Structure formats: structure tokens, C-alpha cells
Amino acid sequence: MKNLLIASTSTVHGESYLDYLLPALRLHFEKCKTILFIPYARPGGISHQEYTDYVAKSFKKIDKEIKGLHEFDNPIEAIKNAEGIFTGGGNTFLLVSQLYSHTIMTTLTEVLKSGTPYLGTSAGSNICGLSMQNTNDMPIVYPPSFKTLGVIPFNINAHYLDPDPSSKHMGETRETRINEFHEFNSIPVLGLREGSWLEVRNYKTTLRGALSARLFKKGEKPKELATGTDLTDLK
Amino acid sequence: MKNLLIASTSTVHGESYLDYLLPALRLHFEKCKTILFIPYARPGGISHQEYTDYVAKSFKKIDKEIKGLHEFDNPIEAIKNAEGIFTGGGNTFLLVSQLYSHTIMTTLTEVLKSGTPYLGTSAGSNICGLSMQNTNDMPIVYPPSFKTLGVIPFNINAHYLDPDPSSKHMGETRETRINEFHEFNSIPVLGLREGSWLEVRNYKTTLRGALSARLFKKGEKPKELATGTDLTDLK
Q1: Where are the alpha helices (DSSP H) in B61-119?
Q2: Which of A80, B96, B103, B205 is most buried, by the most CB atoms less than 10 A from its CB?
Q3: What is the pLDDT of residues A133-160, one digit of tens each?
Q4: What's any GO biological process attached to this entry (chains A, B) (predicted)?
């Protein structure tokens, strides 16, 4: 029994933070008065408190209170007691390092598997997969492992970007990078475009949002999946 | 005493592999008949032999023979005996993992510090810095450490990209990522645009190529450095 909303991005171009998700979040966190926020990914290096304040403003629009995990002396207890949990984006290497150093990876997996409503955006979505190996982030700190929550049986590439045919840049495309991953790993990778999310409700996983997603499996051609696709059997 | 050519990219848009560098490479490897090629980064997942054959074609244009490191039973001896060394691009996580698993990181540092002519492109340039933490690559394998050769006292961001003001993508810009790095690290980072390289000759380091480079230092505003800038004192 799970209750997860795993989004590619917190923000779509031209809108305010989380705005495009608010109608879904109102339902998703229907039974929560207060949501526990995990601010460890620190986008742009802002502090835990700055990040928490920023997030609280958006959640106020749907009458939810936000408490930052950094405010608790015992983060394990805080996670166990949370009515709902949100992990925001930023740097995935930093987020994963912090989850390990606060020894909350296992507890977070347990509460998510037993139904605590969860929202992840960007780095907070990457950690839902089996490993963080399809992040786009820079390795600014060295985590003790790349293994993550594994509350879905595949990996996420957030902010998925199609190749730009007019580009003169010689760096790898996202597709090339994911193909390199599949030379060494067999975990399927779902490229979630900005504006898409996964809804994991009980035992059913569905692609939501306006766009299609791109699925990469080792040794197979990538596939476009229409919004609404049932991904329950993907592994 | 060092003799390094540290390039942002192997290839500039619209040209063949290494073409823009061949005039510099002819001089750089003047005294070498054979160059040892380190193919470990495997761009796009190609095999060591495929990669070596591809590189050999370009070096034939300046009458140099290429031998792949994978062809030797004892890679440590091969590096010690090399007349010149080239490490090609691909995935930096894979390259660094392989350098550690073949226990050649120390030997490679030693020969580079004692003057063996070296060419690095992309991932092969990232490893010249103190750490690989400013790579743009995906963490497709878990290396035992992010520490690299340290033959220059700062880090390289290869394929440096300026922010695109018309972009609607909400992922981090390169500058944002490097600033996040500086929240946790004090190593200067040189953003090398495609077509730029560093020339390290004896104790002098100079920016070469047609373009300026962008220097990031912790707590300072980024600076544009014109080609020809002396970077000997950067650390």
C-alpha cells in the first residue's frame, strides 16, 4: 500500500513553485494538516530554513502547514510520526548523503511502503527509484552509496530533455547518457518530462500530467508512453 | 616539470575527431612515435578496441601510432614506459572507477608530474584536476573515490555551457551547479568552453584556443579569462 506522487519538476516554466501540482496535491494530502518537508537537497545552496519557508508559502495556498525535518532533534521519529512527507529538489548527491548521514533511508522507505502520502520533486523523485544513478546533478559531495529508497522498481530521470537537433554542443544528450547507464545496469529508466508525474496509489502506478514520458530498457529501443499509461508492471 | 594538454572536448561542431587540435598535437607529441591510449571512459558504451581504433585513425593524420592500454597485461608498466599518453572522453565515473580498479591512478600522476606528454579530452581532462566533482556525466557506476590525478591544483568543468536565456527548461544551469559545489568545496573550477584547452608546459599554465574561459572561485563572482591568460598561479 503506497501513496506517492513522483514529479519531474517542482515548477513549470512561467509559473510559481508547485502551482501546476496544487490541484493534485490538495487531493493527495487530503488527510494531512501538516506535511514534513525534507530540505536536504538545498537548491542553489540555500539554507534548510530558507528552503522550508519558501515551500511553506506554496502549501499555504492549499491550507497545509509545513515543518522542516531540520527542526527536529530526532529525524527518525519525525518521519515515523509524519502525516505526509515532501522531499524537494536540489542536488541529489547532497540529498542522498544527508539521508545516509542522518540514518533515515530505511525509515523513510518503511513509512512510504506503509502508506504515508509522499511528494517528491526532481531530486526528491530520483530517490524513489532503486538508485540515484540517473540524476543530472553534479557530484558536489561523495555519498556512501548510490542506492536509494526503491519504493518504485525502476529509476527516474527527472527533467527529461529531448535532444535539440539545432544544438552545436558536443556534450552527450540525455538519451546517450541513459544508454551508457544500460551498458552496466539493467534497471529500467523512466525519463519524466517537466510537467509529468507518477501517481502510485495502493499497488497501481500511473503516468500523469500533460506530456508523454520516455522509457528506456536495457537492450531495447526507447518507447514513448502516453499520459495515463498504467506502469504497474514496469520493473 | 609537466607537459599537459587539457582540452574541453575532442571534437568541435562540424569537424572530425581531434581535427582542431592536430596542429597543437603535432608539436605536443613531437618526440613520440607511439602514444598510449586510455580507452576506459567508453563514450556511448563502445568497446575499448573500437574506441582505440577510432582514435588511431585521427592520430594517423600526424603520423602517430596508437596502442590501447587494454592491450597490455601490466597497465602499470605500460604507463611507466609510455612515450606519450592520451585519455579520451566518455563517462568520467566509469573512467575513474577503472583507473582505481587497475590501481594506476598513482602511477599516472607520477609520470605526468615527471614530464610524459599527456593529452586529455573531456573526461580525460576532468581527471587532471583535484577531483572529478565538476563532471557533467551521469553516475552510471560508483567509483571508490572522487579524487583524481591532481596534476593541476584546481578542477575542470569540460564542455562549459553558458545559460541559454531563451530556455524554458527548469533544470539547473551549469553556473548554478558549480555554485552549489562551492557551498561545500573550496577548489577553484575552470569552465572550459568547447574549443579551449589548457597548456601546461614545465611550470607554466596557459589558456589556449579561440574562446575565453569562465573561472569560478568560492565566494567570488565568476570571471571571464581571455585566451592566452597565464593561469600558473591559479589554485
Answers
A1: 75-81, 92-101, 105-113
A2: B96
A3: 999 999 999 999 999 999 999 999 999 9
A4: proteolysis
Burial of residue A230 (number of CB atoms within 10 Å: 0-12, 13-18, 19+): exposed
Instruction: Name beta bridge partners: B7.
Output: B121, B197
Q: Residues in chain B with pLDDT < 70?
A: none
Q: Distance (Å, rounded) from C-alpha A132 to C-alpha A91?
A: 11
Which residues does chain B have within 8 Å of residue A43's beta carbon, measured at their own beta carbons?
Answer: 172, 180
> CA B121, CA B81: separation in Å to the nearest integer?
22
Q: What is the pLDDT of residues A37-86, one digit of tens each?
A: 999 999 989 999 999 999 999 999 999 999 999 999 999 999 999 999 99
* H or E stretch at A121: strand A118-121
The Cα–Cα gap between B159 and B173 comes to: 13
Residue the block writes with cell 598510449 = B36
| Domain parsing of chain A, residue ranges | 2-225
**Rounded Cα distance, B108 and B116, in Å:** 9
Give the distance from residue A63's alpha carbon to the nearest chain B alpha carbon, in angstroms: 26
Q: Which residues pair with A224 in a beta bridge?
A: A214
Distance from A139 to chain B by nearest Cα, in Å? 5
Distances (CA, A) of A131 to A125, A189, A206: 11, 10, 20
Strand pairing category for A189-191 and A213-216: antiparallel
Residue A235 binned pLDDT confidence (cut-offs 50, 70, 90): very high
Q: Which of A:118-137 have CB within 8 Å of B?
A: 132-137
Q: Are A88 and A124 in contact (CB under 8 A)?
A: yes
Q: In this complex, do B161 and A169 lie within 8 Å of one another by their Cβ atoms?
A: yes
The DSSP symbol for A137 reads: S
Digit-coded pLDDT (tens) for A163-208: 888 888 888 899 999 999 999 999 999 999 999 999 999 889 999 9
> Residue B23: which H helix or E strand, with range?
helix B22-28
Query: What does the alpha-carbon distance between residue A129 and residue A76 come to, in Å, rounded to a whole number?
Result: 21
Per CB-CB distance under 8 Å, the chain A contacts of B185 are: 140
What is the model's pLDDT at position B50?
Answer: 98
Show residues of chain B in contact with A172, CB under 8 Å. Answer: 43-44, 136-137
> Which of residues 172 through 191 in chain B touch A, CB cutoff 8 A?
172, 176-185
Residues in chain A: 235
DSSP code at position A40 = T
What is the C-alpha separation between A149 and A99, in angstroms, rounded?
Answer: 10
